[in-house]
Design a protein that fits this description.
Elements lengths: L7 E4 L15 H14 L3 E5 L5 H13 L4 E7 L2 H11 L5 E8 L2 H8 L3 H18 L3 E6 L6 H13 L4 E6 L6 H14 L7 E6 L6 H10 L4 E4 L13 H10 L1 H4 L10 H12 L20 H9 L27 H10 L6 H17 L5 H11 L7 E9 L7 E8 L2 E8 L3 H13 L4 E9 L8 E9 L2 E9 L2 H23 L3
Bound molecules: acetyl coenzyme *A, 3-methyl-2-oxobutanoic acid (KIV) and magnesium ion (MG).
Amino acid sequence: MNDKNRIFLFDTTLRDGEQSPGVSLNVEEKLEIAQQLARLGVDVIEAGFPIASPGDFQAVKTIAQTVKGPIIAGLARANRADIERAWEALKYAENPRIHTFLATSDIHLKYKLQKTRSEMLAQAVDAVKYARQFCPDVEFSAEDATRSDLDFLAEVVAAVISAGATVVNLPDTVGYTVPEEFEKFMRTIIERIPNNEQVIFSVHCHDDLGLAVANSLSGLRAGARQVECTVNGIGERAGNASLEEIIMALYTKHAFFQKEVNIKYNEIYKTSRMVSNLTGMLIQSNKAIVGNNAFAHESGIHQDGVLKERTTYEIMSPELVGVHKNNLVLGKHSGRHAFKERLLELGYELSEAELQKAFALFKDLADKKKEISDDDIEALLKDQGRSVPEKFTLEYLHISSGTNMIPTATVRLSIDKMPFEAAATGSGPMEAACHAVDKITDIYGRLLEYKLHAVTGGKDALGEVLSKVEIGEKIYNGRGLSTDIIEASVKSYVHAINKYYYEKQHENGS
Ligand SMILES: CC(=O)SCCNC(=O)CCNC(=O)[C@H](O)C(C)(C)COP(=O)(O)OP(=O)(O)OC[C@H]1O[C@@H](n2cnc3c(N)ncnc32)[C@H](O)[C@@H]1OP(=O)(O)O
Ligand SMILES: CC(C)C(=O)C(=O)O
Ligand SMILES: [Mg+2]
């Protein structure tokens, strides 16, 4: 805590990241991500907002009970019920933190909270004091800080510190600031607070103007020691500051920033893929650090330069962030040794049973596809590592479709190893197949959205389908993989149905 240049990484993928429209993670998925965040080495995991729903409460509680190492934080509005609920979930953690917040800007006070500044101040102080009765580590966030009156904000910050806040976060809630302005803003507030070294100042920037990472870095230059961010920059509206971009900016420009983080860099890529896979939010190809093109060189002059000396066009090495480039070609004639070796290089240590299963899937794919790339292997592993047990498994699919005919699908699912078959029609082949699945499972989903992308290039590319399926009042993300795009689509639908079924079983306590 004494090293002024040590930056604490506060990951809020599971809270603010989950606020991305259409994203909803179940307890198992949140736990899987939290465990990976711990392997990556973040300092704080904001696991959720416990009062928001029973599922979020359970997720925070499970993470608090299970994940060791990082501080586990939970969000609470500035009221006693939220704080009590947050503590109920967090109290199991090795290092718990209650994170309470209240807006300081006049626009939020007047229209949203309908409170005066003095009422806000009293409520913030009361919330922090109350939270401190339960937990020694309490963070206070002044929501919409960057649009707040500076004098009033400084008064609130001083008051919550006196009330016992250990971390004070000044969010750019609506992504309204720009780097120079934000640096000056942070410096001004920090300088105005007596004994400002007793508390950790934090930044939390949103990306409405595409400046979240730049603003966060400026905040760190001004003296903030905690930075709040999400994997792949997911989050409310245009998202939050991206964790991987902040980490790599601090690393690559170390001479400039002179800040230290305690991170396992080679876990970055894997973390990014896991979050994309479980949230259903695809990563754009040109996304910095983790996009498919981030280390690709297309044009001749660049390729020539890189072949002569990598650093002509690469400011960091792909291997550092866990992206492995490998010349060993894997295909249908490859054996277990080469396959296992590649898995280790990609950062996957599988048990013998998992390895056997993955190898069988690999051979299956190799029969359909000439060359198996690292992306194919990762896709297979993600497919295998599905977060819920498969009650329903797609066994057989036959589609009859064409111009001037009604698309018809025949589907066979196995349920507890017993085959069940149904046929149905629809306005397209996917709808027909979904209807057939619904008939078998007696679960009726509504496909809201589905995105198909080729995991690799070529006619024999593996297609990955990420779908959002509404069942009851909730939306479930499904994922399916196949060289056949209709099969991948139906698999993603069945995956979402499996998630729904698993959740229902848990709710019923069976
Ligand atoms: C900037 C951010 O990211 S803040 C975090 C945003 N995240 C979320 O909202 C996700 C989870 N939220 C939820 O599940 C729900 O909104 C809940 C459970 C928290 C509250 O649900 P409801 O009780 O139905 O209230 P609703 O969401 O409609 O309105 C919010 C209420 O909280 C109040 N409120 C908002 N912020 C705060 C705060 N920091 N402290 C205290 N009260 C607050 C609002 O003024 C409003 O109060 P009112 O009902 O007296 O008008
Ligand atoms: C709750 C706070 C920290 C927040 O997410 C924001 O202001 O953006
Ligand atoms: Mg936010």
